Amino acid sequence: PQPLPYVAPVMGGLRPGMAVCVQGLVPPHADRFRVNLASGPEDEADLALHLNPRFGAEGQVVLNSRFGGQWGPEQCRDLQAFVPGTPFEIVIAVTPQDYRVRDRVGGGWGVLCWSMGAKGAHWVVRGVPKGQ
């Protein structure tokens, strides 16, 4: 397993036809975690895609982007593929129009679409401990 946060460059940036696969295990007492497609490794880098499963009372996946320090409008979806204490798998496919986030749910794949701005040149997976 990779330590978190995991930060890796995508040489040449993400382009249509490419995909990023993220597999992991949601810790049993997780409050939330995030997967970011970012323009660089810095915490304040622009985020072309911010995928943030939130557990507890919220119980939803939030999709968003951040450019120039400004967050865009959130898109919220049901939290089906992410359950504390269980493994997950998501594939983020890049198309000319958007990012297609597929998650493995009950043997099938659900698809979330997020319109893209700038393409991320790095991707970051960060676990956020409960209570933070």
UniProtKB/TrEMBL annotation:
<protein>
    <recommendedName>
        <fullName>Galectin</fullName>
    </recommendedName>
</protein>
<dbReference type="InterPro" id="IPR013320">
    <property type="entry name" value="ConA-like_dom_sf"/>
</dbReference>
<dbReference type="GO" id="GO:0030246">
    <property type="term" value="F:carbohydrate binding"/>
</dbReference>
<dbReference type="Pfam" id="PF00337">
    <property type="entry name" value="Gal-bind_lectin"/>
</dbReference>
<dbReference type="InterPro" id="IPR001079">
    <property type="entry name" value="Galectin_CRD"/>
</dbReference>
<dbReference type="InterPro" id="IPR044156">
    <property type="entry name" value="Galectin-like"/>
</dbReference>
<feature type="domain" description="Galectin">
    <location>
        <begin position="6"/>
        <end position="132"/>
    </location>
</feature>
<keyword id="KW-0430">Lectin</keyword>
